[in-house]
From TrEMBL:
It comes from Teichococcus vastitatis. This is CinA family protein. Residues 14-162 form the CinA C-terminal domain. It holds the Pfam family CinA. The keyword Transmembrane applies. The chain crosses the membrane at residues 40-59. SUPFAM superfamilies: CinA-like.
Amino acid sequence: MTNWPERNLLEEAAALLAALQARGLTLATAESCTGGLVSAALTAIPGSSATVLAGYVVYSNDAKQRMLGVPASLIATHGAVSEPVARAMADGALADSGAGLSVSITGIAGPGGATADKPVGLVHFAAARRGGPTLARHHVFPGDRDAVRGASLAEALRLLAEAGEVTS
């Protein structure tokens, strides 16, 4: 991974942080397949500590349960890569961090881990806002592991902007 994250994503992260700061919103991230890339992009921006309160890297199911309060039954029923788990991760990050906004990412970056129902590149996202609805979406991104993770970072920034009702 050269020049990671890409310069345009860092510019997007900076614009998002400025808009969130102007609105007085704080945020937390809950990341699985991105392994902290969203937090890394956000905290690469000087002054990000005014907005970014916490970042959770919850790669294992146990970490999702212990750190974010994702019910084991939810993972057993839907799998770790699912909309219900993404929503629970975002809600857990919001509750634990005290932030006003959170984003979660859970997916299959590859090259392994895929099933017939859940291909490589499938990523579920959720964004929760205190006092507002939790937004969720999913994508199947093409490409290798780096491409899936990079596309996931970009989508997480877009979803944060949407949930925070800002333009970045």
